[in-house]
User: Fold this.
Amino acid sequence: MILDQIAADTRLRVEAKKKEISLEEVKRDTQSMEKNTGFPFETALRKPDLSFICEVKKASPSKGIIAEEFPYLQIAKEYDEAGADAISCLTEPKYFLGKDEYLKEIAKEVKIPVLRKDFVVDEYQIYEAKILGASAVLLICAILEEEQLKVYLQIAKELGLSALVEAHDEKEIKQAVRAGAKIIGVNNRNLKDFSVNVGNSTNLRNFVPPEILFVAESGIKGPEDIAALRKNKVDAVLIGETMMRSPDKAKMLRFLKGEEHHEES
Ligand SMILES: O=P(O)(O)OC[C@@H](O)[C@@H](O)c1c[nH]c2ccccc12
Assistant:
């Protein structure tokens, strides 16, 4: 299964990083950092209207290369100017061709909060996210034990980071709720076989209590998808490929919101 493979590779990557900079060192580095005031990622999602999280992603295992040319900083700035509420930035290098530097530079450059999109299997990566300037981390239920998830949520909280806890089915949502997640994302893409069903997040909407923020992730292509998610009282959407492939981010965002009738001019 691809997810297990990515998680295993990530463990190796983290072990190698620890040899260069130890866990103690990254912990110490976060201690000397300015304390965050509030949780900007969570705040960005907690508004009456639907929030948009736009993703900076060069490639993925299901789609291959999405952006041959990849002016990541410019893309992030365009998302910010287009009115995105937050940015998701892939840092996983092998399968998504992400880089820590992308996140670091983007977080410095934009006003909106940035989520570190990676496969967290070690607390090391949460401290690292903080150092890179992220406002939030992704925690994927399918690769974490419930106890681990609880511990990681606590570490993130202490660092002033929000956590988007990703679930794919009812069982994982229940785990996320028990572990104390404040933001739950339901992935419409099954990471076991890459099949996409935008109905997955609407079907599972009611398993998440209303005080927990609900994010619909993946496979969102057009205003009909957004309208259906709005109707189901989703708090936020996470959109990657559709935004990445669009030459005019502001226009695409208006199109998705139903404010613009044509995708292309
Ligand atoms: O490009 P899409 O289909 O709009 O999907 C974005 C995002 O949801 C997807 O990249 C994603 C969702 N969960 C993940 C976990 C790891 C890596 C990537 C992801």
In short: Residues 55, 57, 117, 166, 187, 217-220, 238-242 surround indole-3-glycerol phosphate (CB under 6 Å). DSSP finds twelve helices and ten strands in the chain.
